[in-house]
Design goal:
With 319 residues, this protein is an alpha+beta fold. Helix content is 46%, strand content 15%. Helix 2 packs antiparallel against helix 6, helix 5 packs antiparallel against helix 6 and helix 11 packs antiparallel against helix 13. It is elongated. The chain starts with a helix and ends with a helix. The relative contact order is 0.14.
Amino acid sequence: MIGKLAKTTSFLWVTLCQHVDRSGDAGKTWRQGAKGRVAVTAPTVRRRRLGSELRRLREAARLTLEEVEARSGLSTSKVSRIESAARGAKPADVEQLMDVYQVADSEVRAFLSALARDGSKRGWWQTYDLKPRYADLISMEHDAVTVSTFEPMLVPGLLQTAAYARAVIGTLSTTATPQEVARLVEVRVARQSVLTRPGPLALHAVIHEAALTTRVPGAGVMRDQLQRLLDATAHPNLTVQVLPLDAELHPGAAGGFATLGFGQPALDVVLLEQLDRSLYIEEPHEVKRYADAFETLAALALTPEQSRCFITAKKDAVQ
C-alpha cells in the first residue's frame, strides 16, 4: 500500500515567504453569507494532509466516491468534504475508510489516525498573525520526527540565537516594521522547543562554511551564534556538520533545502526557501532526490567532531 501511495503522491505548494500578516486575517478564509462576508477558520495543515492522503489512498484503491459510500456507509458528500479539508474527520471515520482502502501498514494507520485526532487542535503559533503557509511549516515541524537541512548561507532557523535571528529577519524582511521583526524573532525562538521536548525532533544540519563566515551586525552576535552551534553538538538528537569551502562541486550548489520526515518516506516533505516564496515538495520520487543529495552533502562535509573543531576555531577568530 505504501508503494501505491508513493506512486499517487504528487503536488507542490507555492507560497509567499512574507510571514507576518498585517491585516489580522492570517489563517482565515471567507464565505458569502446572508449578511455579507463571514470569516471562517482555514483548514489546519493536519486536516489538509489527512484529506489529501485519504484521497490518494482511495485513488490507489481505484474506488469512486460512490463505491466508498456503498462499502463504508459514509456519504459521498462527507468523504468529499473530508478529502478537500472542508470539514474535519472523526478518528472512527478515518479507521473505517482505511479499512475500505485496505491499508495494512500500521505506521500509516497510526499517522492518519493521529492527524484525525489532532486535526482541529490549535498550536501555540496560531496566537500570532502568521501567514498560513508559515504556520504550516511550524505545524509540520511540530509533527515531524526528523529534519535534515542544508544551509548554504545562513545558520538554520532551529539553531539560531535571538540576536542572530533578529539580524537575519531584519535584513530579509525589508518591509517589516520593528514590531513585526520582534514577533518573528519570538516565533523563531519558540519553534526551537521541538528540539528539547519529550521525544525531541532529530535535526541533522549541514551548514556551508560561508554561513559561518558572513559578517553579522552587532557586537558578539556571530560569536554567540557559533557558541550556540557548539552547544547543540552536545545533544544526541542534534548533528551539525560543516561543508568547507574547498569541498568538491556538490548538489547543494543549487541552493538550500530541508526535508521533514514523518516516519514513512511516502509522507516526507521537502522545503525550498527563496527570498520571495517557499516551495513544499511532496512527490516521493522528488523527495528521494533531495534525500540522496543530502546524503552526498553529509559525506562531503567534515565529520561532526571535525566540524566542532572547525566551529571552535571560527569562534575564537571572531573579533
